[in-house]
Structures are given as structure tokens and as C-alpha cells.
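User: Here's a protein and a ligand (zinc ion). What would the complex look like?
Assistant: Let me lay out the input and then the predicted complex.
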Amino acid sequence: MSLRNLFSVASVCILLILPCSAILADSLDIIPDSTINQIADSSIETASIETESESIYPLSPERKEMLARYSAFKNIWRFISFFLGLGIMALFLFSGLSAKIRDWAQVAKKKFFILWLYLVIFMTIDYLLSFPFEFYRSFIIESNYGFMNQTFMEWFSEGLLSLLLSALIIIIPVWLLYYTIEKLKRWWLAFSLGAIPFIVFMVVVTPVFISPLYNDFTSLEDKQLEKEILALAEANGIENSNVFQVNASKQSTKLNAYVTGLFNTKRIVLYDTMIKNFTYEEIKFVMGHEMGHYVMNHLWKGLSLVIIFIMFSFWLTDKTIHKIIHKFKNRLKFEKLADIASLPLIMIYLSLISFLFNPISNGFSRYLEHRADIYGMENTEVSGESAAIAFDKLSVYNLSDPDPHPFIEFWFYGHPSLKKRMEFVRGYQRQ
Ligand SMILES: [Zn+2]
């Protein structure tokens, strides 16, 4: 887990949790990057996946074996990345590096710029330490399983862009955090409430100013499909201009669709990879599902949970962290939480708490996903069989395990297992 991911958990986590909760398939939840990362970039033509895609569905015995290996790897990686993130933060703390960075950052003189300089150095070192693991997980593994549509340089420069954007944006919540810690006794309450406008602002601007830095968002290219989808959207009170297609094939062959944005930037986004490999009926069901998220305001519901999570996490942190700092102060070389050198320790807290919070946040997300599936069945005329094929294709194309171990589903899945979703739509009786 890199710093960006940890921050996603903290307060920029809205960028992570919201789009994920609205995403159709679980496959992308595996790499818990922010939207910034998730919608990453390069420039390979769509044509490269053309030859392969014909043989992918239905599932061949070879691909079934691949699916099993990929799923097993992802399950192990959930734990590796968790402990890796903790390990890197512990290294910052107990080697005294965090305190050293704080000392170096003093050249910036003014408090705000000291925080910022600390953050830039900290994030850069974290990036370098995490790089081999990130490269292995996101480039090597994705290439080996045939998902990667980028060259190394394209993938690498996208990572640098994300680092740069994070360094520019994350200073705001970090400054607010240390400002409230220094000034207020109930800083955890003040910070959680103060973070709301920031989080809302980020969700509003991300689809318009950040995502387009990585991908092109256009109206649907297939005009016949557009006609059918817009008729469906309109029947459910969604305006034409709020449905987009994205050239996600630039980065990966994986299929997906999601709802993002708030107010005027709220939108449904379909991957070009999905449009290419799904029939109209299957796409219509996907649209029905996404419309469910859209119409039932799932983004606001997810956002509320995020605020509660932030508040709870920082309350718990405040109750326990001061004793830890006091106990290890000689080793850590800082004495107060208000010292910016404490940032890696706060990261460890957030990482642990969010890991333990997983069953709640994912349980809530699975509930919303189920509601969206019901909405999709109720508000489209797609047959249960077509909807089930859409889920089956998600499993086969994205190599996602349709039937994970119940514990893995309970702890890590933001969506019900594809097997359950298939059974549900097949057996669904419209009212
Ligand atoms: Zn969904």
C-alpha cells in the first residue's frame, strides 16, 4: 500500500471509496488506488485487444486455470500490500527518518510550507520504497495476465503524474489535520467536519479536471447504442449529457462501468472495452445497474459513511496515540502529535483501523450494489439470462473469481460475488 493509498483511506479516501462503490465489478477494487490512479493513462490503440478478445469468452479450461491463479495471487497480495504499507511507515518512524525529514523541512520557514515540504519529501521517499512492489503488482503481473495495454514508460509517467497531483492536493487535508490538532482539543471532530467541503469539492472536480488528464471522455460512439441507452436514461430521469464512454483500453483490457461526480459533474461512465465486448442487452443491464447508483444517490450515501469512518478513526487515534508517542519519544524523536513527524504513525493508525473497518464498509457497499442490481432488473427489460451473462463476462474477461471464499468476500469484496449476482438475476421476478 503506497502513501497515496493510505491517504485515500484517510481523507482523500472519498476518491477511492465512492467510485469503487459505484463500480460494477470487483476487479478494480483490488488495487485500492485513488481515482487518480485508477483512471490512469497512455496511448495504445484499441486494436491491440481485438485479436485476443474473440477467444476469451466463453471460459476455456486454460483461462479457468489462469483465473484461479490470478485470484489466488490477488488474495495473497491483499495481505502483502497491507503489511508492506505498515512496514514502510514503521521504517520512517523507527529509523528516525521522519524526524530527519521534519528537520530538513525547516528551511521552508513558514509553517504551511514546512508541512508541504515534509510531505513532498516523505511522499517521494515512500514512492521510491514502494516502487519495486508497485511495479511488480501493477505492471509485471498485469502484463503477465494479458491486461496491460501500456509500455513501461507510459505506465511509469502516469505514476509520476499521480504522484505530482497527490503532492499538490494532499497538502490541504494534511494542513487542516495538523492545524486542528495544534489548536483544538476535539480536533478529530473539527477535522472530520472541516474535511467535508474538501471531499465534496474533490468529488465534484475529479471527473472534470483530473480524470481527463489520463483518458478521453466522449459521448457514445455507437449511435444506435447511444439512442437506446439515452432512451433508457431519460426514462429514469437522467439527462443525455451525463452518459460518457471512456477509452479505458488505453491502460487495460479490463471491463467496467461506474458512476462518479456530484451535482453538475455527476455522470455514468462506460468503458470502451465493455461496449466492445458486450451485446446491447448486456450493456443495457449494466446501464440499469449504474442508473440505480445514480438515481438512488449512492455517492452521497458512501460519502456519509466515509465521514463517519474518518471521525471514528481519528477519535480512536486521539484516545490512544498520545501514550504511544510518550512511550517511544526517544526513539521517534518527536513528543507531540502536533509534530508533522508523527504523520507515518497516523498513517499506521488509519491503515489498521480501515483494515478492521473493511467488513463494515464493504458490507455497506455490497448492500448498495445489490440495490443497484435490483434497480437494473426493475427498470430495464433485459432478461435475467442476459444480465447473468453480463456478470459471467465480467468474471471471464477480468479474471475475477465468481465464487470467492466467504471470508474473502466478507472482508474484502465491495460487491456481492458474481455467482450470487448471477443467481439473483436469473431468479428475479419483475413486479
Ligand atoms: Zn455498482
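Summary: Residues 22-24, 289, 293, 369, 372 surround zinc ion (CB under 6 Å).
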